């Protein structure tokens, strides 16, 4: 017998469950989504028929060399994991890190990330984001 039952509420999702990786899905989200912007990143929020929301991180060569691009991806994957339990269903988020995100502290990035997601009702405003 396999463990294909309901997912435990305490278990966090795997990367394949949280992150959107197929190019066609990312392109569809970019075309159909609402564009949001802040100093550290651009975000596209698109409707989805998937029960669990997924996040894609798109980093172009314009941002820098491979080391810099990978660092940006790691930071934004950590931000996505930090809010995964608060993400509502039926959405795809596509994140485009901006150059300013490279020099920002992780705390500043996280605060901006949470504020933008809460303002757009993608996550609920929690105590963590108040007074930070």
UniProtKB/TrEMBL annotation:
Catalytic activity annotation: Endonucleolytic cleavage of RNA, removing 5'-extranucleotides from tRNA precursor
Gene Ontology annotations of biological process type: tRNA 5'-leader removal
Superkingdom to which the source organism belongs: Bacteria
Signal peptide (UniProt feature, chain positions): none
Pfam families: Ribonuclease_P (PF00825)
Keyword Chloroplast: no
CC per GO annotation: ribonuclease P complex
Keywords: Endonuclease, Hydrolase, Nuclease, RNA-binding, tRNA processing
TM regions (residue ranges): none
Keyword flag RNA-binding: yes
InterPro entries: Ribosomal_Su5_D2-typ_SF, Ribsml_uS5_D2-typ_fold_subgr, RNase_P
Recorded GO MF terms: 3'-tRNA processing endoribonuclease activity; ribonuclease P activity; tRNA binding
Enzyme Commission code: 3.1.26.5
Binding partners and assembly: Consists of a catalytic RNA component (M1 or rnpB) and a protein subunit.
Functional description taken from the UniProt entry: RNaseP catalyzes the removal of the 5'-leader sequence from pre-tRNA to produce the mature 5'-terminus. It can also cleave other RNA substrates such as 4.5S RNA. The protein component plays an auxiliary but essential role in vivo by binding to the 5'-leader sequence and broadening the substrate specificity of the ribozyme.
UniProt family annotation: Belongs to the RnpA family.
Protein name as it appears in the record: Ribonuclease P protein component
Organism of origin: Nitrospira tepida
This protein's encoding gene: rnpA
């Amino acid at each position: 017998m396999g463990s294909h039952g309901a997912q435990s509420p305490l278990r966090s999702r795997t990367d394949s469950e949280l992150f959107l990786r197929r190019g066609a899905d990312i392109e569809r989200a970019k075309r159909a989504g609402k564009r949001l912007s802040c100093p550290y990143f651009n975000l596209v929020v698109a409707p989805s028929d998937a029960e669990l929301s997924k996040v894609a991180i798109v980093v172009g060569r314009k941002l820098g060399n491979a080391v810099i691009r990978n660092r940006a991806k790691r930071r934004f994957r950590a931000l996505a994991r930090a809010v995964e339990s608060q993400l509502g269903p039926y959405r795809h988020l596509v994140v485009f890190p901006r150059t300013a995100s490279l020099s920002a502290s992780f705390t500043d990035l996280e605060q901006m990330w949470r504020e933008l997601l809460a303002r757009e009702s993608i996550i609920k405003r929690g105590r963590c984001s108040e007074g930070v």
